Amino acid sequence: MEVKAFVWNSGELKILNQLKLPQTEEWLSLKSYKEVAKAIKDMVVRGAPAIGCVGAYGFVLGVKYEKVDPEEVFQTLKNTRPTAVNLFWALERVKKALESGQDVEEEAKAIEREDYETNLKMGKIGNTLIPEGARILTHCNTGALATTGYGTALGVIRSAFRSGKNIFVWVDETRPYLQGSRLTAWELAKEGIPHKIITDSTAGFLMSKKMVDIIIVGADRITLRGDVANKIGTYTLAVLAKEHKIPFYVVAPASTFDPKLFSGEEIPIEERRGEEVKSCFGCKVAPTESGALHWGFDVTPAELIDAIITEKGIIQKPTPEKIKRVLGI
Fold first, then answer.
1. Rounded average pLDDT over 280-289
2. What is the CA radius of gyration of the chain?
3. 3-state secondary structure 170-183
4. Average pLDDT value for residue range 294-318
5. In whole angstroms, how far apart are CA 238 and each of 143, 207, 230, 287, 316?
6. Do residue 164 and residue 271 come from a single domain?
7. pLDDT-based confidence at residue 3 (cuts at 50, 70, 90)
8. In this structure, are strands 313-316 and 307-310 parallel, antiparallel, or unpaired?
9. Where on the phi/psi map is residue 189: left (φ > 0), alpha (ψ -120 to 50), or beta?
10. Based on the domain organization, do 142 and 84 belong to the same domain?
11. CATH label of the domain that carries residue 86
């Protein structure tokens, strides 16, 4: 089984339109950095590692193929999504490659290749924490569609299943874009991993019924003290996990850590249009005159996290000292 969110072919970036899944597998052909920026902003492509790689290829399109001023391309792509640090990390990397006279296209390819290898490592490492027969609850989509083809949190789940463990997955629907019910369930179904979709508000009651053994999620940015910004609803799960004494794990590559920020209070939280909450894929579900608040992410403090799984090792009960030691920073 091979799922890809994007495919690069010199001068063209093909994107799987994740807004159309699971009903339609539509591929879009992007040939300009502005088209890439719009795809990221509109969530046609999403997931921190994936938008980092796509952003890097957008930079390549702008500076190598369109011959646009590098700073204009950099700023346009950087301003698409304010929370996910992987985007900034990848853009800084291709920008430095350009400034040092390297081939930016080869650097973008290296970022993509390294992300896939990193996900495989995290899957193998994280699998050591998954017991036989585990009933796992996950939030949003952290699989192949959110990365370069394997996954972070869903990559760990995938590795556990492929190793022969008899696991079962509870899939939070993840409102308002339904990345869980549309994307995670789609990936799990393709691979034959047993699962059921639940509404986000069902999770707590499942825990009270002792029907959840582990909660495993991804991340969009992690601070030096171990606070984690992730899809809105993650903090709620962490609080519920603590109340019900359920292990709460975060899976993220080293590129998701932002050591320049110490605490979660410093992370910029993206606020998206309220209209996204008031409708569901073209169907209005709220009065026109009603206002709506739509934060795309929330922050889970380090104290609620049992472990962060990275390609460099597992950070148990994260602290600044442990993060520095494991990541070598």
1. 90
2. 19
3. EEECCCCCCHHHHH
4. 98
5. 20, 12, 11, 32, 15
6. yes
7. confident
8. antiparallel
9. alpha
10. no
11. 1.20.120.420
- Non-local (6+) Cβ contacts of 228 within 8 A are 219, 221, 222, 234, 250, 252, 264, 299, 300, 302, 305, 308
* Banded pLDDT at 287 (limits 50, 70, 90): very high
Q: Do residues 253 and 115 touch, judged by C-beta distance below 8 A? A: yes
Secondary structure of residue 280 in the 3-state scheme: strand
Q: Which residues contact 57 (CB under 8 A, 6 or more apart)?
A: 6, 8, 13, 36, 108
Query: How far is CA 292 from each of CA 103, 224, 278, rounded to the nearest angstrom?
Result: 45, 32, 7
Mean pLDDT of the region 239-247: 98
Q: Does the structure show a pLDDT above 60 at 26?
A: yes
One domain, residues 157 and 280 = yes
Same domain for 101 and 148, yes or no, is: no
Q: What residue has token string 């080293």?
A: 254
Supply the pLDDT for residue 1.
53
Q: Are 108 and 136 in a shared domain?
A: no
| Selection from 216, 296, 259, 285 nearest residue 43 by Cα | 296
Residue 2 has pLDDT above 90, yes or no: no
Q: Which one, of 111, 44, 69, lies nearest residue 255 by Cα? A: 111
Examine the domain organization and report whether 137 and 107 are in the same domain.
Answer: no
* Same domain, yes or no: 221 and 307: yes
What pLDDT is recorded for position 294?
Answer: 95
d(CA 215, CA 285): 30
Instruction: Among 92, 116, 140, give the residue marking a domain's end.
Output: 116
Give me the CATH number covering residue 292.
3.40.50.10470
Q: Which domain holds residue 24?
A: 6-116
Of 220, 227, 298, 306, catalytic: 220
Over residues 221-229, the mean pLDDT reads 98
d(CA 97, CA 111): 12
Is there a catalytic annotation at residue 220?
Answer: yes
Q: How confident is the model at residue 260 (pLDDT cuts 50, 70, 90)?
A: very high
